[in-house]
Amino acid sequence: MDYLKVLRNNNKIAYKTFYMGTDKQLAPDLTMRCVFNGNEKCSIGHRNLLLDSDSMLVLNKGTQYASCAGSEIPARSFAISFDEKFVADFNRSVRLNSRQLLDVQQNNGTLPELGETLYPFNGDLKQTVLHLKHHLDDGLDNELLINEYLHHCLITYHSLYNRQIYQKAEQLHILNRSTRIEMIRRLNLAREYLYSNFDRTIHLEELAENSCLSINHLLRTFKQAFGQTPHQYLTDIRLQKARVMLKQTECPVNEIVNTIGFENPSSFIRLFKKKMNTTPMAYRQSA
């Protein structure tokens, strides 16, 4: 059942079912967007992103985007939009010390525009969102408790953002900090392109063009940031999708191979066994 919950402090939570038709939208505030069923295609300008149960999209206030189900299976999206004042107050709590927080005259400020990209949706953040959704599905109307969940979502996202942006930027062999941050932004364009197009052949030239980097620069800095080459990163994405399909569907291996973008079953089985120390069929039987 779809719903839109608007709290007294103007935080918003929306649960909506998407079909194949495109729905154009505007992010009302800083928004976390995830999917609990199927997958969702989101377009931001020229970027086409694939959102599934293992990923989360963050949108800044005012971002225009379009979304639709990524397949014939309806996509059920869950979106949290944080009011500007709620975000500003959170920002103060993480950047000021206890004495400064007691100064009611302190300038609230706002969070800077954050990287609009796909983030891993797992661990504490996913569990918090799942618990919140479960309570809302059961009719929770306690705004104090709901806002506590939303505050915890911001805490876990803040930690995730630091890991995905600042800590990875520190791994780059670049002296200037602002240049490192810009490089991570471009590398995230490459990373999200791999994630959103894992089911087809991706050429290095298009990946470099999409991230606004030369091929050599992309190869060198991608491995510094993510510890893998783009090809290794793409292979891991495909193998993860294969594990999900082996556990959750009865699709034959040949169909899974075609779905996730491997060229042939033999290379898939070899790579799967190397990664998981077991064959795909044995993995399915043990799931």
Structural commentary:
- InterPro entries: Homeodomain-like_sf, HTH_AraC, Tscrpt_reg_AraC-type_HTH.
- One of its GO terms (molecular function) is sequence-specific DNA binding.
- It comes from Mucilaginibacter psychrotolerans.
- This is AraC family transcriptional regulator.
- Keywords: DNA-binding, Transcription, Transcription regulation.
- With 287 residues, this protein is an alpha+beta fold.
- The chain folds into three domains: 3-168, Jelly Rolls (Sandwich), CATH 2.60.120.810; 177-227; 232-286, Orthogonal Bundle (Arc Repressor Mutant, subunit A), CATH 1.10.10.
- Helix content is 50%, strand content 19%.
- The protein has helices at 84-95, 98-101, 123-137, 143-170, 177-196, 204-210, 215-226, 230-248, 253-260, 265-276, 280-286, and strands spanning 3-6, 12-18, 23-26, 30-37, 40-44, 47-51, 55-59, 64-69, 75-82, 118-120.
- The strands form two sheets. A six-stranded antiparallel β-sheet has the order 1-2-9-4-7-10. Strands 3-8-5-6 form a four-stranded antiparallel β-sheet.
- Helix 4 (143-170) packs across helix 5, helix 5 (177-196) crosses helix 8 and helix 8 runs antiparallel to helix 9.
- The longest helix has 28 residues, at 143-170.
- The chain is globular and about 55 Å long.
